[in-house]
Amino acid sequence: MCNRVPDASNNAWVTYFNQPKQTTMQPGECWYLHLEESAHTSTPLVLTCNEPGRENPCTVDQWLKDDKTQQFTWDESTRAITNRKATGKFLNTDGEKVWLGNVQRTKWWYEQTTHTLETDVTGTHNTQWRIGVAQVRKWNPVTVTPYTGTPKQSVDALQNWRIEYCYKNK
After folding, report:
1. How confident is the model at residue 100 (pLDDT cuts 50, 70, 90)?
2. Could you tell me the domains of the chain?
């Protein structure tokens, strides 16, 4: 029966499989968020959140392997990002700064076509927000900037990030 046509109604002849999900942020896995623009400098910089609270905004700092203030995980169902050092603290934004808080206020996603970490601060889905920095410099605060348009629109180089998963000794 080499010349038969697959028929979805006849399950005896056709088998369908779930397709894999393609995303860069793997749920529950530890990762660092590298500022891509810092790859052109002598010091690679990553998102760093030292202390919780709005008065302690997250910054970019020199990447240090195994520094838990620089390690994050993402929950696919809630789209929450949590910090590995400040257990139970969520990455949040108020439309200006990025900080760790006790309650999840922000849902995040990584747009892999533009290499941006994004959110919808207002909840209207009309304006998206991207995190970035003003300069490639240690301890520079991380802020959010609104944009409208398609996700593939041109991006400021200071908003480009890449995800690197934590190394596990086995």
Report:
1. very high
2. 31-165 (2.80.10.50)
